Amino acid sequence: MSKKFDVIVIGGGPAGMMAAITAAVNGSQVALFEKNKRLGKKLLMTGGGRCNVTNNRPVDDLIVHIPGNGRFLYSTFSQFDNQDVMNFFSERGVALKEEDHGRIFPVSDKSATIVNTLKEELEKLSVELHFKEPVEKIISDGASIQGVRTSEGDYSAKSVVVTTGGITYPSTGSQGDGYRFAKSVGHHVTPLYPTESPIFLTDEFVSAKLLQGLSLQDVNLSVIDEKNKTIASHEMDLLFTHFGISGPAALRCSSFVNQLLRTQETVTLKLDCFPQKTAADLMEEIRERSSASTKQLKNALAGFLPERLLLFFLEKSGISEQSYAQTSKEQLEKFVSYCKNWSLTANKTFGLEKSFVTGGGVELKEINPKELASKKIPDLFFAGEVLDVNGYTGGYNITTAFCTGYVAGIHAAYHAFA
Ligand code: FAD
After folding, report:
1. Could you tell me the distance, in angstroms and rounded to a whole number, from the CA of residue 154 to the centre of ligand 1?
2. What does the DSSP assignment read for 343-396?
3. Is it the case that residue 372 has pLDDT exceeding 70?
């Protein structure tokens, strides 16, 4: 083998950079291999190019916002959590700020601030950075790891940390190599599926482009299974597009849609445009706004809903050309039911390549949650999106990557000296 290291880290995303830093801080000689010519290509894209470093919620809340096996992370977060992520950057002179929904960003509003800080730290700790040198395989005899092979040759290591990310946005370098590495040494990978993805609808109003471009604030979108049970519900903003729906509420529901689509042709979504009001409240509000008026409801109710949606619901209820006095209670109830309980039909989401986060990954039953070491090969560690863990956008995946990276890095270093 051409060169010997204590710890080799495969992948220079948030998980890999943090793993390499932590292993080096704990006295290891570390090499990090990144297939791109620079670090953190995907991280640079997050938060609209501003880097959504983490989220400032209590740990229990973080777990709730990581619907894909968040509970596996209790042990990780007990060793390094979102507050530690914030301290890490603050201690290195990065000013952070909190925005809506607890999202944390650098005050500079530039992702480069975060990636440069990590790079400087790696260089300070003399981590050997190998750019444009993808790892091709893990060298193992089946019981332990000997090192890795790249196009440049073989490198030996006492511990190897796999932080190759998921398989979404493959142009960032995350192309699923880690799943191949895991399988090559006997690990299982659970089925991969798109999460945090816009949703396609089959409803006629979509092909008719009636609502395209319309955005709704703080509405409630729910995913309903075939037994009519609500399996996920999110109150956030929503955007109608030329193919269906996008925006935070749709992204959060997408993983549940994809899980149901494994056994169903279509999935029912329910949209409540007034989650803070009851149907009775709405009936009363409509009466107050329009009962004294002879105007048609579409004019009397101006401002009750965005104009295009108001007209759409009134037309669906058959009352767009009527005044309040001409409208029966049943017709008004139908209109209110559209406002509160509008049924939409989803048939797919964007594919993996265009979704933000990969669902599924390295089987967690085969990973020790305390050390993030393989239960099959004790000198092999996994961190970040390559694991079968997925969170909502808003900093939850990045927090997972930094924190699991820290834990894998520290235990990889301990192992190297054991
Ligand atoms: P990655 O960041 O994917 O890094 C893996 C690295 O490994 C890559 O640099 C890759 O080039 C390298 N690599 C892969 N294979 C090899 C190999 N064989 N040899 C060497 N190197 C290799 N999450 C949030 O929490 N909040 C957000 O707001 C958010 N926004 C997002 C926006 C976009 C557009 C996208 C695409 C994702 C977003 N995410 C967000 C998800 C988040 O970026 C990822 O979950 C996170 O980057 C995963 O970190 P990671 O270190 O595990 O993997």
Report:
1. 25
2. EEEEEEE--GGGSSEEE--B-GGGEETTTTEESSSTTEEE-GGGBS-B--TTTH
3. yes
